[in-house]
Write a structure and sequence with these properties.
single chain; mainly alpha; 7 helices; extended
Amino acid sequence: MKATMQQEQEFKKLQRKHLPSRPVLRNALLAFLVGGAISAVGEGVRQFFLARGIGPEAAAGPTAAVMIFLGALLTGLGVYDEIGRVGGMGAFLPITGFANSIVAPAMDFKREGWILGMGAKMFTIAGPVVVYGLLTSFAVGLVYYILYIPR
C-alpha cells in the first residue's frame, strides 16, 4: 500500500514535469476580448431595435432572439467552434454559447436523420434547461397566484 502511494506521487511529479504550462493570463485576456466582442454585437443589435422605436424592455426579447440565431448560424457554418477555441469561456458564456450547445450536438448527428439524429440530439442539453425553466415558472406562478389571489 505504501509503495503504491509513493509510486503515485512519483508519477504525479513526472506528469507535472512533462505537461505544458497553461498560458492562464493569455487565455483570460482572450476570453475577456471575445466575450466583450460578442456583448458589443449584442448591444449593437439592441441599439438597432431601440433606434426603431422599440422600448428598452421590449427590445430585450428580439435582441436575445437575434443573438441566439447568430450563434446557431455560426455553429452551423463551423465558425463558432473556432471562436470558442480562441475565446474559451468568453465565447460560451453569452447566450450565443447556449445556442452553440444546442446546435453542435445536432450537427454531429445530422447524418442519422432529421428526427432521430438532429431532432433528438438537439435536446440533449436544451431538454433539462427547458424542463427546469417550465417547472420553475410553474412554481413561481403558483406562488404568485396563492399570494396575490383577489379575495
